[in-house]
Amino acid sequence: MSITVAALRETAAAERRVAITPEAAKKWRGKGVRVLLEHGAGEAAGFPDASYVDVEFAAADAVLAQADLLACVLPPEDAVFGRLRDGSVVVGQLRPYGADARLAALSARKLTAFALELLPRTTRAQAMDVLSSQAAVSGYRAMLIAAEACPKFFPMLTTAAGTIRPSKVLVIGAGVAGLQAIATARRLGAQIEGYDVRPETREQVESLGAKFLDLGVSAAGSGGYARELSAEERAAQQQALADHLKPFDVVVSTAAVPGRPAPKILSQVMVEGMKPGALIVDMAAESGGNCALTRPGERVVHGGVTILGPLNLPAGAPLHASEMYARNVQHFVELLVHDDALQPDFDDELVAKSCLVRAGERIFQG
Questions:
Q1: Which of 39, 176, 219, 332 is the most exposed place for a label (fewest CB within 10 A)?
Q2: Angle (nearest 5°) at CA 122 between 5 and 343
């Protein structure tokens, strides 16, 4: 197979993941694919060059000049696309919303680009679902951050100084990230509740040993996401949630929809009603936050309540996050290869709906 699959060192701030791991490279080579990496591409993720077997390394310009397909975790600088050969393919989390300059750069070189975050959330797409794999990492890390920042122990402890009661933790949003956060809090010994406006998530929350917080508002939607609440439903939800927040030591919020601002779930008044020493970890900080007081990447203290807005959580566990991501990429690229060549089948829903640019023609309109 005369295909060269390549990856560069990621350049986004604090990004430590890599799109091609040694495990993935071995599988590519087993299929006859040439793997070409920039020197040190996997080092920050825990994969030095020596850990890759039968892989070629070169400087960035040489990698780009030879790549048939460039895999990335996050979008490189737009200028990078101009150094690829006309007709090359780019696959990764390309953050297409509001990115006209990026789409123009892809079109200018007649590239074909696929944004993996646009993949339909179907059973067939599960093996290549980067949103789910990276959300699992995010949920795990968010709860570890909460456990470290919380002024209380998570588990119940019986000591010579008396019994320590467990922390009470609420997770808002029972998607992949929320469920992983719940599972992690449970392992750490906290008393855990989960809340979601989608009633079908109750069984999943309870299967992890958590109590489901039912506020009497249902917003079952499509595609794995909740529908937007009406003004009346939102007001009812806000009041009910405010009444239930007071006993919790930790709240982890996970509600986010790709391409849209995060829904504001925790108002300033609600935060002011929480007990002093309480902690909020807002996983939606990158898209504006679920809490009205969240500042992305910062720690805010308001009325004795601490609000954390961590960014790029998967990059904090880069080895396993990279392994999961690289498998997702590999499964997706298999859809693009036919007769030992890159020939995407645009009649395939997964290919068509994730395509941003096709041979220079802009497909995605945002």
A1: 39
A2: 35
Closest by CA to 114, choosing from 286, 266, 335, 308, is 335
- For the chain, where are the alpha helices, taking DSSP H only? 22-30, 60-66, 78-81, 100-108, 130-149, 176-187, 202-207, 231-245, 268-272, 318-334, 349-354
User: Per-residue pLDDT averaged across 48-73, rounded?
Assistant: 97
Q: Is 77 exposed, middle or buried (0-12, 13-18, 19+ CB in 10 A)?
A: exposed
Check if 138 is active-site: no
| Type of residue at 305 | V
pLDDT tens for 4-27 read 999 999 999 999 999 999 999 999
Residues whose CB is less than 8 angstroms from the CB of residue 78 and which lie 6 or more positions away in sequence, other chains included:
101, 102, 105
Q: Is 121 a catalytic residue?
A: yes
> Is 225 in the active site?
yes
Query: Could you give the 3-state DSSP secondary structure of residue 90?
Result: strand
Question: Catalytic one among 88, 93, 107, 132?
Answer: 132
* Contact present, 325 and 17 (Cβ < 8 Å): yes
Is 126 tagged catalytic? yes
Give me the domains of the chain, ranges plus CATH numbers.
Answer: 4-118+318-360 (3.40.50.720), 137-315 (3.40.50.720)
Q: What is the largest CA-CA distance in the chain?
A: 71
Catalytic residue among 187, 225, 267, 295: 225
Taking the model in full, what pTM does it have?
0.93
Q: State how far the Cα of 16 lies from the Cα of 244, in Å rounded to an integer.
A: 38
Set 129, 196, 249, 282: catalytic member = 129
